[in-house]
Amino acid sequence: MKKFNKSWSFAMASLLVAVPVLGACTDGPERSDKERRTLRIGMVYGSKDNESYVRQQMTDMFEVDHGNIDVEFVYGIDYNDMRFATDEERKNQNVDPHAKLKELMEGDNPPDVVMTDIVSMKKLSSENLLKPLDDYIKRDKVNLDDFLPAVIDTLKAQGDGQIYGLSPTFSSTALFYNKKVVCRCQDRAAYRRHDLERGVRARAVPEERQG
């Protein structure tokens, strides 16, 4: 990753599940804070025509605060490449999104960070394509207590104990059920998935067929 000013490098990382790309890391000299430079952010899907929302949500204010830095988005799969394709051609396309993102990251001009989901982050880190943030977190004294503990724990688990990306937002899924209906023992809940599935299957069988 090109050496940008340390005061904003983590601010950008926290906007994405943002992961520094190992191929973009160099050990060059520190660059002046006033020097014009470009921060390249890689995404799996997108195009120049529809990136305005992402910029509004994630980078516009950053560019206002850092007038010498231009943010450029690059894509593994560019929607513009399919602009003139027929419906049949789109249907028959067999594109591997992960392979396209890897191709972008291993190219001659890789992005500095990539915006990705947590599953892809684990794959990319296992393929040695990402740079862990732990040393930077210690160096810049980033307070991980500012992040939701469950999110940090999940990021560490996906990185085998290391942190490869930070995220300010997350989504979760919960399942609510009536334990008196699903569970045979009314004094306990089905804490394990297979207990819940077994209870649901049992309730789905008509009473005359239950032994």
TrEMBL record:
Highest taxon of source: Bacteria
Keywords: Signal
Keyword NAD: no
Cited InterPro entries: Bact_solute-bd_prot1 (IPR050490), SBP (IPR006059)
Residues annotated as signal peptide: 1-23
Matches recorded under Pfam families: SBP_bac_1
PANTHER family (UniProt xref): ARABINOSE-BINDING PROTEIN-RELATED, DIACETYLCHITOBIOSE BINDING PROTEIN DASA
Record's protein name: Extracellular solute-binding protein
Annotated organism of origin: Cohnella rhizosphaerae
